[in-house]
Amino acid sequence: MKRFSRREFLKLGALGGAGLAVPLGTLQTARSHISAAEAVVSPKVEPFSVPLPIPPVLKPVRSDGATDYYEIIQKEREAEILPGLKTTIWGHNGIYPGPTIEARSGRKLRIRQKNELPRPVSVHLHGGRTPPESDGYPTDLIRSGDSKDYEYPNDQRGATLWYHDHRMDFTGPQNYRGLSGFYIVRDDAEDDLPLPEGEKEVPLMIADRIFEEDGSFYYPSIDPSLTETPGVLGKYMHGVHGDTILVNGAPWPYLEVSNTRYRFRILNASNARVYDLALDPPPSGGKALVQVGSDGGLLETPISHDRIRISPAERFDVVVDFSRYPVGTQVTLKNLRGEGQTSEIMRFVVARKEKDESAVPQKLAPVGDLPDPSKAAATRTFEFNGSFDFHGASFYPMWTVNLKYFDPGRIDYRPRLGSTEVWEFESDAHHPIHIHLVHFRVLSRDGKRPGPWDAGWKDTVLVKEGERVRVVARFDGYRGKYVFHCHNLEHEDMKMMANFEVV
Amino acid sequence: MRLRYPAAGLSFLAQLIHLWVLPEHYLMWDTAGYFFLVVAACQGTLGVSLLFGPGRWMLRLGIFLNLFVVFVWAFTRTVGIPAWVGAFMREPVGVLDLSATIAEVALLVLLVKLKRDLVRSRM
């Protein structure tokens, strides 16, 4: 038997160490990180034990004849989201959801956003017809310690908009930490309607989150410092889905209601989760959810639904008539797509009788001058594709629009100011697609009529796997550079975005 | 053959950098992580061999390995990482990857010289 010399022994040991043990050990650290991520489960919360919070309405710091002026400070604060635990949030004015801003159609509003957070931010008014310098372009950043004035002309119909962070590469984690709030534009047409108002007009921001044992948010960033590398652990490529459902920042809350009509401005502010909303039990006769508005404001006529599918960033303005339930009934807002605890969202407790003077008229509001697809100056097709799985081969895991990754320096399309265009979206997975600046009408899904949830003016539309959705939009308002993108925020951060410049 | 010690140092430096970035790449895309694992393991093996007196085959393999790694680096920084037919993601040039590449190019030069010296010494 051959005996090893000391030199050979040393060489073998060094080869084993440098060639095997050290590399494999390093790989193991990464694997442990993934195992730890997969093991995170939010602390248990008793559903329907917390009352529904309503975000405060922000008051202007001053007003003049034409403009209302607001100031918001984005800062880190601790909040009690899960009972008994502290969560560090990033919030507008330190709260999540941020304060609600109420604007008047046709009246200018200027917001000074100060960033006291440790990372840059950019604020996008989602659904706003906004000049490019105030649109929250992903690289138009407010650095830590700096401020920026955003000017919103509100030259648009009354509608439920929302503001949220739009920082290049890190929109997902920054929204997840709490950087979003409602922005409601009101107009005369809406004021003239007898829809429920005051305390009976309730904004509902639905979002899902994962929490660590100590109550902190868990977000599977590759780079949790949010400085260098965008994106999430491979397992979350399709989006981060939380196991805890929050409404207005509270887990599975309840709301006591009277046996009257309530108007709910529902926003899906989740990073990636699509919900199928329904009431349980349904009232006799069904059709509990009467949709009066969409992303772009009131519909022409109400539409009654048994359920509503809402994808990230979409809004549905819905009236529920609780007089169809006996007093004492507990009505759960369910998510028919969910499993286990994600199948429930919140609860309404019909607690008292009350006189109801509201109504849902059969004629709501004029929808304005619709763009005519037969006069479209261009028809463009956009493929929204993942790029990491092609015939079973594993490629670089990013998301593309027309096989291109987002590049802020590249203008992909140039619609002319005032022109009408038909855009066709094709998709390899579920992608909620959002176009900045414009509102659009859904023309068809796979060549057939639009779906039951496509009515009205939209700024975000869910394109399902393998589906082709045609929309028509008029590119008016402002010249300049804007983006359109998938509003699954993990897809967006991983490059599923493109530029268009209105010329 | 004194050149083999700086060559070993460069090989270990390249290994160290690949190990440093391995976890981040693995978390994002396991294929990339395995690529860095193989490169780091090979650089480590090459480094140890250089310390103990490499044979001609080891030098030849070291040259091919470093040529390949430098080529992959240049390709991903100019054309991009192939993601799908027609889609390439161009990686930015960073301090770490540039340092590794400089080390690998210098290592290549030393490996070629070492191989020539070895061939001459055996003639």
What can you see in these coordinates?
The complex is a heterodimer of chains A (503) and B (123). Chain A is mainly beta. Chain A is built from 4 helices and 32 strands. In chain A, strand 23 and strand 24 form a beta hairpin. Chain A is globular, with a radius of gyration of 24 Å. The mean pLDDT of chain B is 90. In chain B, helix 3 runs antiparallel to helix 4. Chain B has a two-stranded antiparallel ribbon with strand order 1-2. Chain B contains 4 helices and 2 strands. Chain B is mainly alpha-helical and 123 residues long. Helix content of chain B is 80%, strand content 6%. The longest helix of chain B has 28 residues. Chains A and B meet through helix 1 of A and helix 1, helix 2 and strand 1 of B.
Q: Gist?
A:
Chain A is mainly β and 503 residues long.
Strand and helix layout:
The complex is a heterodimer of chains A (503) and B (123).
Chain A lengths: L5 H33 L23 E2 L3 E13 L7 E6 L5 E7 L3 E8 L7 E4 L20 E6 L6 E7 L5 H6 L3 E7 L1 H4 L9 E9 L34 E4 L2 E2 L2 E5 L2 E8 L6 E6 L8 E6 L2 E9 L1 E4 L4 E7 L8 E6 L8 E9 L25 E9 L2 E2 L2 E2 L4 E3 L17 E9 L3 E5 L4 E6 L14 E4 L4 E8 L4 E7 L2 H5 L3 E6 L1
Parallel strand pairs in A: 2-5, 4-9, 10-14, 13-21, 22-26
Antiparallel strand pairs in A: 1-2, 2-3, 5-7, 6-8, 8-9, 10-11, 11-12, 14-19, 15-18, 15-20, 16-17, 16-19, 20-21, 22-25, 23-24, 26-30, 27-29, 27-31, 28-30, 31-32
Chain B lengths: L3 H25 L1 H23 L3 H23 L2 E4 L2 E3 L5 H28 L1
Antiparallel strand pairs in B: 1-2
Helix pairs in contact in B: 1-2, 1-4, 2-3, 3-4
